[in-house]
Amino acid sequence: MEYGLIGEHLGHSFSKEIHGNIGDYPYEIKELAPDMLERFITEKDFKGINVTIPYKQSVMPYLDYIDERALEIGAVNTIVNKDGRLYGYNTDFFGMQALLLREKMELAGGKVLILGSGGTSHTAEAVAKSLGAASIINVSRESREGAVTYEEAYAIHSDVNFLINTTPCGMYPNIEGVPLDIERFKGLKGVADAIYNPLCSELVLRARKKGIIATGGLFMLVAQAVRASELFFDTKYEDR
């Protein structure tokens, strides 16, 4: 394997097609069970890889260098093998920031609700901070690490302005799922869902029906893939 994506379940992934349109290099999709991860990483039989659920945090102890932003976020989604030394980065930050700016979601001064507790939720929090959000609330099924529960979100934070979903709820093949009831948040101005398969999740569709700016995660996926490819080849592509 030269370049590719690792994760546990990847039947929904568009990454091979995206990288195939970025440049002329081989890119593979490789599903790994949890007990296979350590061997794969330590063998270092790759040039550059992307990392997705549930390994964005699990890979970090095996890396020789971790970019400052990835360290701050606590998640790595891109690894480059440089002469046997593994370098970790978080290009999801670039992708999510590009998505929100493209959709003109003005987070500055607003209250943001982030759904989920995995690596992408930490990325969303870092992006919201970078865009000047006044208040950021993390939501998880269990109240832990400062997160509130969904019921607490309804009861205490119904005045949020923006919602970012980083959970897999609504992802193919379970496309009818929604992580929460947006009807209970009357001040919503924007909804961003990291899910890209389907292109518009049920959450996004419901928000749009209410006249709320809402987007799925495909642009985020493409933008982070472009940045990952730049890291793979130590180059910079022209903006398009």
Count of individual beta strands = 11
- Tally of helical runs: 8
- Give the distance, in angstroms, between the N- and C-terminal Cα atoms: 29 Å
Order of H and E elements: EHEHEEHEEHEHEHEEHEH
* CATH 2nd-level architecture of the largest domain: 3-Layer(aba) Sandwich
Look at the structure and name the CATH superfamily of the largest domain: NAD(P)-binding Rossmann-like Domain
The CATH class name of the largest domain reads Alpha Beta
| Poorly predicted runs of 5 or more residues | none
Whole-number mean pLDDT: 94
Tally of distinct domains: 2
Determine the CATH topology of the largest domain: Rossmann fold
**What is the helix fraction of residues, given as a range?**
25-40%
**SS-derived structural category:** alpha/beta
Largest sheet: 6 strands, mixed
Query: How do the strands of the widest beta sheet line up side by side?
Result: 2-1-3-5-6-4
| CA-atom Rg in angstroms | 18 Å
Strand coverage percent: 15-25%
Shape: globular
What do you see in this structure?
This protein is of the alpha/beta class. The chain has two domains: 3-90 and 221-233, Rossmann fold (3-Layer(aba) Sandwich), CATH 3.40.50; 93-219, Rossmann fold (3-Layer(aba) Sandwich), CATH 3.40.50.720. It is built from eight helices and eleven strands. A six-stranded mixed beta sheet has the order 2-1-3-5-6-4. It has a five-stranded parallel beta sheet with strand order 8-7-9-10-11, sandwiched between helices. Helix 1 (15-22) packs across helix 8. The chain is globular, with a radius of gyration of 18 Å.
